[in-house]
Amino acid sequence: MAARRVRVAAHAGLWYTANPAALAAMVDECLSAGASLPAGAGPPVALVGPHAGFSYCGTVLGSTYKHLPADCKRVVIMGPSHHVYLRRPVLSQADVMETPLGRVAVDRASVDELFASGQFDWFDPDADEAEHSIEMHLPFLQRAAVAAGMASAPSVVPIVIGGATAKHHRDIARAIAPLLRTPGTVLAVSTDFCHWGRRFEFTHGLEDRTKAVHESIRSLDMAGMSALSSLRPDAFAEYMAKTGNTICGRHPLSVMLQAVAAEALPSGGALHWLAYDQSGKALGKDDSSVSYAAGVLTGPAPAAAAAAGRGTEPTAASP
């Protein structure tokens, strides 16, 4: 493995401002405006949020990290690979990850333990810095930690997943299970939802003349979010096989569901969808859009709220 190194904020100044004061103010505003969990919800154990430029998805990502637990010490954060083919999931070789707001420590001991499990490869440092799915969550993690009164941001265990099968999902979930069962550890999944348009080679909904394209996209995404809310890996796998929705983080999401199935994350909880938005309102075949959603998986609710159900979907008031 490479010697001690810093992963630089390669997308600062491109996908989000590199000015520390402006970045902190923008993220704080998004966190403050973020949607709340329903009354009686259990404690957050996993977070789901997008990874686009903050001008597109910042308000949605704020609804995700608004719910970082105040006692969180470590975040196992999983994202998809956008630029390189990966035969197996990969682990960052960095010791710290830099943003304009400072540095986030990588939990190297846990990363090394995962590598020793034989389920992971090392991420090439150049490919690591080119990949944005982990980086885009870090400023929100940092400012959420400040809002929660933490002395510093939780350490991270960054995992990037490329191609994967259901067996890979189960194997990864088993490998990270000891970390997730440790108090103070939260799972975070970095994913966008539908990527629609010719440039994504996905134009689902054009055949339905009764709906605007962006409404068809929303319906497609909501069906996927409903499948995820079932917390059943097979339900989400069936949805993906049926629709082919271009959810870039489908493999990390599947690992999250397998972690619930393996009881590495609490069963009997609920996946709450707090916000949803699209980068643009697609109307025809020449348009394009990317969808964003904020989800929070909570542990079992207090007894008084147990009858409230297993999950919630965004309401009409959601972004």
TrEMBL record:
InterPro entries (UniProt xref): MEMO1_fam
Family the entry assigns: Belongs to the MEMO1 family.
Cited Pfam families: Memo (PF01875)
Lineage: superkingdom: Eukaryota
Biological source species: Cafeteria roenbergensis (Marine flagellate)
Stretches that traverse the bilayer: none
Protein name: AmmeMemoRadiSam system protein B
Signal peptide (residue range): none
